[in-house]
Amino acid sequence: NEKINLIKPRDQELIFSAMDHGCFEYEDKKSKNYKFNARIRLLGSLEPKDKRFVGWTLETLKKQIPINDEMLSKFHLIFMIRKKKEENKDQISRKIIFAKHEKLISADEKFICDFIENAAKIHVEIPQELDGKLVELAAKIKMDEKKYLVEVSTNLMIGLKRMLKSSARMRLSKEVNQDDFLLVKQIVLNGLKLYD
Predict the structure, then answer these.
(1) Distances in whole angstroms, Cα of residue 158 to Cα of each of 9, 74, 155
(2) Residues of the chain with pLDDT > 90: what percent?
């Protein structure tokens, strides 16, 4: 659970190399080079410079991001998460205290694991009409880039396609439909927004 920006610089280089090229290289003390295949799926988090984001303007927030734009561009999707406003804290505390947390039984755990394993094997296609809508969505997001905290890279398109296919797999479907598109569109646009 270590924050990406707190990892040693050399380890960061290896991680980002694996994200870029599907491999990383290592040189030992005798200057011998080793190459390792490393196809990875990375879900990471960053800790702002003062441990929390302060302020609301785009310029102020950008200064607090602890890694550069080049590194950020390697991620397919980026979400900014802020603490809830003060007036909501009491409501959140009540939910934590009074909520019932039922433990999964082993049969349920097995069902979930089997479901994920089977769903992951499904080859999903994106229909041509939705592929066109996807291109339009990516173009609109790129056009509005100045409104967002991070630069919009080509990786966004990859991220959008993967989310669409994941949504279809959750339905055990071989084809993306309109509901998948609307769900992914909502998630991504809400994630890019700075304000509620």
Answers:
(1) 26, 11, 5
(2) 21
